[in-house]
Design brief:
By secondary structure, the chain is an alpha/beta fold. The protein has one domain: TIM Barrel (Alpha-Beta Barrel). The chain is built from eleven helices and twelve strands. The strands form three sheets. Strands 3-4-5-8-9-10-11-12 form an eight-stranded parallel beta barrel, surrounded by six helices. Helix 5 (about 160-170) packs parallel to helix 6, helix 8 (about 260-280) crosses helix 9 and helix 9 packs across helix 10 (about 310-315).
């Protein structure tokens, strides 16, 4: 390599570094969770994929910890984990990352899902179990108080009063600051909020999953509850990188959305997203995240990532805006019912 080529390569690397530094120096906007809830970053970091999920290999731990720390440096303080992610591995990982900088992080923990050998067996939301779960989570995270504690899903196996009432007791004990809920019905949400103010509703929400707009999201808005929206790319459907058919071992093949003609029809709609993203100079993933963000000031996109290289593009997505025509194109193409087949998000 000639001296000129070496200088040019060094220049490119410097430009990349400067771009990233400018990116992380940006002031990430805040969102309030609940009417009197905490202020947190408008973009949240989902840590689930930093652990083994559905039998996948565990990503490089050093890179995952570095990703969490760079996210915190950039102003993303909302970290989402679950006590069942990687059988506790995820909480221990987050604990390592925030050691020495607890005040920089807002920790959200889901509980109650039971897994064995990579298989979901159901929910355990009994008060006695919740009191057990919280102590293990606090120990793995290395903290004294969890900022947002929430059942992973309400399955009607235990009365809402018992679940929320137990977490409310944990607030009195100083082990929890705020109560959240996840994957819940509108009626359950009302009941939960009557028992104790709910700060946040965590729910899968994307262009491809809009059934929540019928009743659940309006109920949350009426009650002044913040929305933590995960699965913004609908399990990869909206990334523009998916091709039919999926590989035999792909876990998504269990869901009808990713099977046969359903997948082919769905990918045809994704082409519209790809074309619109290309014209705007962004990736389909960025546009999908931005669409979620544009649905309301009380909505936080929760983006899962395990590599630092993903941070700049996801942060940049928060600055994307749409013309009326662009929003109309997306809302028409991906209207409720436009995507064929279901996923675990359908109850």
């Amino acid at each position: 390599m000639s001296r000129t080529d070496k200088l040019f390569e060094l220049y490119k690397q410097l430009v990349c570094v400067l771009k990233f530094e400018l990116c992380i120096m940006k002031n990430i906007k805040k969102i309030q969770l609940g009417q009197n809830g905490p202020l947190v970053s408008r973009l949240g970091l989902g840590c689930m994929r930093m652990s083994s999920i559905w039998g996948s290999a565990t990503p490089d731990e050093t890179e995952s910890i570095a990703t969490i720390n760079e996210a915190l440096d950039s102003g993303i303080n909302f970290l989402n984990t679950g006590d069942f992610y990687g059988a506790g591995h995820n909480e221990m990982l987050v604990g390592k990352a925030i050691k020495g900088r607890r005040d920089d992080a807002f920790i959200s923990v889901k509980f109650g899902a039971i897994f064995h050998n990579g298989q979901h067996l159901g929910m355990d939301l009994r008060p006695l179990s919740i009191k057990n779960f919280i102590n293990y989570s606090l120990t793995r995270l290395g903290i004294e108080t969890i900022d947002l504690y929430q059942p992973a899903r309400m399955d009607n196996s235990v009365p809402v009063e018992d679940i929320i009432g137990t977490v409310a007791d944990l607030i009195k004990e100083g082990k929890v600051r705020h109560i959240g809920v996840s994957e819940i019905t509108a009626s359950q949400l009302r009941k939960a909020n009557d028992i104790h103010p709910i700060s946040a509703l965590e729910i899968g929400y994307s262009l491809a999953d809009r059934q929540m707009e019928i009743e659940l999201l309006p109920t949350a808005k009426e009650l002044g509850i913040g929305i933590v929206a995960f699965a913004n790319t609908a399990e990869g459907l909206l990334t523009g990188e998916l091709k039919a058919p999926l590989e035999e071992k792909d876990y998504r093949k269990h869901f009808s959305r990713f099977q046969g003609e359903n997948l082919i029809n769905n990918l045809e709609k994704v082409e519209v997203l790809k074309q619109l993203a290309s014209k705007k100079g962004y990736t389909p993933t960025q546009v999908a995240i931005a669409w979620v963000k544009e649905q309301g000031d009380h909505i936080m996109p929760l983006v899962s990532m395990s590599r630092r290289s993903r941070l700049p593009e996801n942060i940049a997505a928060m600055d994307i805006t749409f013309t009326q025509e662009e929003m109309s194109t997306l809302n028409t193409t991906f209207k409720i019912g436009a995507i064929s087949g279901g996923t675990y998000l359908q109850r």
